[in-house]
Amino acid sequence: MDVYSKRKYLIIGLFSLTAVIIAIRLFTIQVLDPSYKISAASNVLRRVVNFPARGLIYDRNGKLLVFNQAAYDVLITPREMKPFDTLAFCRIVGVEKEEIASEIKKARQYSLYKPSPVIKQLSSQTYAVLQEQLFKYPGFFIQARTLRQYPAKIAAHVLGYVGEVDQKGIDANKYYENGDYIGRSGIEKAYEDELRGVKGISYKMVDVHNMEKGSFDQGRLDTAAVIGKNLVSTLNADLQSYGERLLSGKVGSIVAIEPSTGEILVLASAPTFDPGLFVGRERSKNFSKLLFDPNKPMLNRAITSSYPPGSTFKIANALIGLEDGVLQTVRFSCSGPASSPIKCTHNHETPLALVSAIRESCNAFFWQAFRAEINHYPTPAEGLEAFRNQLLEMGIGKKIGGDLYAETSGSVPAVSYYDKYFGAGRWNSLTIRSLSIGQGELLLTPLQLSNMVSLIANRGYYIAPHLVRSVQGYDGVQDTLQFEKHSIPAGIDNYEMIVQGMEQVVENGTARSSAKIDSVIICGKTGTIQNPHGEAHSAFVAFAPKINPKIAIAVYIENGVWGARYAAPIASLIIEKYLKGKIASTRQHFEDAMFNSDLISTMKIETGD
Amino acid sequence: MKTQNNIWFNLDWTTVLLYLILVLLGWINIYAAVYSDEHQSILDMGQRYGKQLIWIIAGIMLAIMVLTVDSKFYAAFANHIYAFTVLLLVAVLLFGKEVNGARAWFEFGSVALQPAELGKFATNLAIAKCISQFDFKLQNLRSYLILGALIGVPAILIILQNDTGSALVFAVFVFVFYREGLNGMVLFWGFAAAALFILSLLLDQFKLLIFLLSISIAAYGVLRESIKEGFIGFTAITGLFGFVWLIDEIADFGCTPLQLLMVTTAISALLLIIYGIIQHIRQVWRILLFFIFAIGISMSVNYFYKNVMAPHQRDRIDQVLGIKIDKLGRGYNVNQSKIAIGSGGFMGKGFLKGTQTKYNFVPEQSTDFIFCTVGEEWGFAGSTVVLGLFLLMLIRLVTLAERQRSQFSRVYGYGVACILFFHIAINISMTIGLAPVIGIPLPFFSYGGSSLWAFTILLFIFLRLDASRTENLR
Predict the structure, then answer these.
(1) Predicted ipTM of the assembly
(2) Are residues B391 and A15, on separate chains, in Cβ contact within 8 Å?
(3) What is the H or E stretch that residue A158 is in?
(4) Which residue, among A418, A422, A436, A414, has the nearest Cα to A370 in the 3D structure?
């Protein structure tokens, strides 16, 4: 026996005391305190996400382009499910038994405890019926959503679409969870943060019979959903719709900009589609149909396709020459079809000055102008470098959009390109002469073309073209967006020379019969782009009126034969519609011809972009 | 004359029976916790309860093996086992597999082994061996240092594995030392420090200082065995505070109440020292020492809490003390666990009838939170039965320890009781919100081979020693 053996009582006492304390606590929470039983009665804590309505999109005149319609997703938590009458359920929701079975299987594989959607986008009618019967289906619950609706069925490319967020999107931004919707393209994507609002989360207690028993912890943990902001787009819905109709049966695009603000009035790409096809239960079917269409209707050609600009580029060429000071007074001679190294396809006076050269679209003149621009510098490389930088300043060969999703930059070949191709110092202006008439390695998007005209129309600046004019805050306050202004101060007289040339193109030049309208002076430039794969492309750029221009436009029609054939009539019709409100009867036949022409089914060979 | 057969005769079957009952109850509750409609067979080896059955059978075989080894082996090889375990703990830090942020597991195919679990009985053996040496006295500093090192080395290695919960278990050896002669004041000061720690978290500095001053005055009164002197001290300090406050008001220093109280404290300490020297009162020094000790602890608590502890550990303590209430974040487990247990009522919902634990509200419900299932399905009645069985076992172990002839066996026995006690008390307390969430298993109940085997070995080594209790082991 040792002296400390009595200490065992203290240790046993400690053990017993602890047991008693625990027993008292157990007695308190298990027998005395009823609140835990109440918590358990409404025993399932369900996290309910309240999806806010996505913001609406209006056109510049307040016409609704996109709104929301309620729809309902059915979600399941596999662990809470009990065997149920599958057939009855399928009858209510109108879905095949096999589909339900496979969705439930998928949900189980995802998680037994986390809810997954099994049926998406039920209509309100179906929802009403199902809601009544829901108690028969433990583990099932319904989540309200909103679907996008497009009353005008126009501007599919511009508006873009929303779709379920993918894993990349979830990883990139913690806000998103599996099954959330996110803007995937167009305005929906570019203005995702403004449009989506903030989803609210509430925690509900749900009992074993799948009935909600109120908020958890008095709703203290709930967060309110914040509705998405509305957008006022720069589009003119009527003009957009008219443009899309004019493009019917053709592959091509129209971009019209208000020069003074950079606001895009029309951004149409053909072939197009009904934006409503991407909504609802048929979405994936429609999506793959459009995706595999050989004419690529989902491609927004106006900003993602780049083309050789052809003769429309002569405007840029002229501006560079004027900036360099080599074109102001010079006259170049032209031998017509006998010209060398580039033939001229028109018969006209010779030698001729810049204004007449623009009117006649004289290849010989612009080749010589180009040579003068390049040779203005000590070496061809330096000349081209300067030439290229001047183009980039004009917004050619780089992305210029203020808020455009998936815009491409086009391409202006750099010195390194030719060095690689011909060897450094082994090329000169003659080698790269096709640049002078907008052919060869030069590629522009229709957006860049229209922006180039916008620059001329403004006589020296352009504002980043954009699609959204203002964001409507939660409190109704309009937040007008600001976009970058780019100035190219080349001297007002120089701009006026180009304007004069473009005026004459329509007045008595290459577009005199196809683009002239009454009482409004249109300044334009045609382009016919040789295409080794088929018919030449048809291009036309213009702005109007000459003084205080209201619209700058570029039209590009693939395989449109020549500039004045399709592009010029379409551009002039849009200008006429916009500035005068209606088409003069003398020009009605153009409208009919455009509406009814069909270049797609007669096209022999698919042209590349 | 002892033969091998006598082991079975001398074995304490009461403890064995308690062990078997607890293990069986654990298995049934794991079945209930994991139960789902798809997998109804309790023998389904793909499910946790099926696997647990394998662990249990293997555990019983381990127990038999432990019993068949000669009791002298454990005493003789205690230090070797300890050294080997420390090696394993180092190795797991270097080569172990990381699970849930803790690098604590060795993986051999599908079998995972947690050396920290072995650390408990190995350390227990080493401590028993150390204390039972002839020349060992639990009085001098050297003994404390040796014991501290024996505990500290595995504890620190386990903390390095990021498994603080398992490391905390080693603190219970202080009760073993107490039984073997550790000064009771050490325990007292330990509890005082713990109480102060909690108070420092709960009270702001002003209230804490008032509390400490009051305690000091009371202690002074008690030490001087005079209510009058205590009252004088109280009046003096209150008056001094009023005086300091008045000066602050007049001079318009704009001091905070805390600053005023600190000035008051400093002045009264100075006066007390002068008074103590003049009057030759020894007790003054004790009071001052206590006061400085207390202030030191409460100040270091803040530093320790903010800079040393991990945020999740801090949060768990905040939850228990009610400083922060967060029913969905850190407090989610405990809140759900309390709902599950609380909803059990007096008689419980019945076997497999639990709703809370079925829906996976309580994470780790088959491991650390297995007691939820007991509370929900068997109610207060079932919970107290389980609690009672555990208490019976602990008391039985203490009783067995006391009947040992050799100190080695007794120390080891107390170690077993205390280790089990710590696990049981902390695990159950955390499920009902009495203790912070520390991830340690409930002995014999929680799912998992490593912990079940470790507890089995721990217990049966003692039963083996007890079976030869008349031997004198060192």
Answers:
(1) 0.88
(2) yes
(3) helix A156-159
(4) A436
